[in-house]
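Researcher: Before we compare anything, I want clean individual predictions. No alignment, no superposition, just each chain on its own. First chain goes here; please echo the sequence and then give the structure tokens.
Model: Echoing the first chain and its structure:
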Amino acid sequence: MTQAPAYTVHEADPARDRELILGLWRGNLGQEARMRAKFDWFYLQCPDGAPLTLLLRHEESGAWVGVASAGPRRMLREGRPVLAGVLADLAVLPAHRSLWPALSLQMALMEAGAKRFELMYGFPNPKAAAVFRRVGYVPLCRMVRHARVLRHGEYVRRRLPAFLALPAGGLLDIVDRLRPRAWRGGLRARWQDVADERLGEVWSPASAGGGPTAIRDLGFLQWRFDASPLIDVRYLVVEDAGGRPQAWFACESRGKVLYIHDLWSRRGVAGPSREQLATLLHAARKAGHRAVSIEFGSTSVDGIWLEAGFAPRESRPVFWHPSSVETAPRWLTAGDEDE
């Protein structure tokens, strides 16, 4: 006689099951008001369709005890459209947090995802990384935060007596401002609050390289950043002497740090030029920021960032699994995540 499974997995309808899903998130993911706002944006307003969402049911009690999702993300691979799934919002109630419930939920999500997505990828926290490995996801790269100090006084005070810190910090600031000034090459920076057609023109399919690379057109910017209730983005637009946009940086002020969620330039996956980075740093310093911070996949960084003074800090893993696309994404920023 076959023993009935302790848990079963069922596909959810995000619009119908909104309160059920929010109840499973409550106390397990982020702050409740934030997660409600995320749900209405990420699950109900995604231009590429609702995320694939699965629910875990405990058969003995009949209770719903877990949920996991994969949100659609449009990509290009060698000029061909690819639909990827970004893993999001795994939650299992505390009483059911043995390995098997989470494992069975993620196994079912991978199986169902293979029918909809050509690849799946995710950014698990350390506790979930073991589950990802057991299911069959493989390491893709590490998301590495890179930081660039702009005003050195605070950092020097950590290492020198107070009477030396002020002049030393000021001297470092002067040297730092002079060094990249010649790099800007006639480019200029302009801030704007929302994406428009001019920013959309920076993206082109040819700039995506071999991919898979997420499409960063105007529609993406308007949904991922302008409509998001989770972040407050402004765009730093780098223009040439004729006023034509050459690159954009989707930025958020976090105290005195300018955090870059995403970026794109006409150079595409080659990354921004030295001149474009110098223009970014000049604009950030002029706006009063003490530092600039950005996270991107370790395969996306090149020597230009290090030459511009960015230094690697902490990192976290990225996992992926192919369904029908064997080539892994190589350009990843925080913009490729679900928040």
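Researcher: Okay. Second chain, same rules.
Model: Second chain and its structure:
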Amino acid sequence: MRRSTVHHDGVTIPVSRGGRGRPLVLCPGLNSTQADLHELIELLRRDHDVVTFDLRGHGSASAAGRYSFDAFLGDLTAVLASLPLREPPVLVGYSLGADLVLQHAAGHPGTFARLVLVDGAIPVPEPFLTEADLPVFRAMWDDMAKEQAARQDPARRVLLSGPEILDLNVEIDDVRAKILGRYREIDRPISLIVSTSMAGDGGEELVERCNRNWRAGVDRLVRERPDVTTSWLDADHGLVFTHAPQVARLITSPAPTS
């Protein structure tokens, strides 16, 4: 295991690297850290030289003055720019991390071998955050932020407040409304790993609506890009934690050939 730091935009980003094989860069999602993804990372290291890191305000990364989508994208770009790589890496992103690696890949053609997007970067037809649902999400993310800030293990702490998480999700909705155009700019293989019940399997109307929207977004993508390899896992959005072996197998599967 090799550890280093990247200094970017006033933020210190911890980077970890280990394993063997083709380079693979794993970008965590919002509210997830390298420590949270430990099981998946260790499995991937059996077949890949895995690089991962903490986004600003997450885990061992320092806090930041802003937590916007572009700021997180800048963190990913800075980490990739710092890496000595012998060949183009596989880019893997989970949740928000999937959106980040897709946006980076679209702007940097020829610098990666393939994309693997895990339950993120879905071109949903409707925004998740409607005016009517804002109070529910606001309360949920306020509670989540308090729990994450109180974690005993500093490597698993998340410093973002509830309002900052809410604002980011509003921004992610806007990014995903335009994301199909970014898919059109990718000329390398893309694999998608998707949960069947992103919002869980409760019977509440909001849960069912979120799950339908997620599945409709996948259908929309497949119609636009039928060459995208799509794999479904019977899980919720925490699939990288609850189904790490299955996710690792899908990530390390050979890239599809045309």
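Researcher: What stands out in the second chain?
Model: The beta strands are 2-8, 11-19, 22-27, 48-53, 90-94, 114-118, 190-195, 229-233. Additionally, The chain is about 40% helix and 20% strand.
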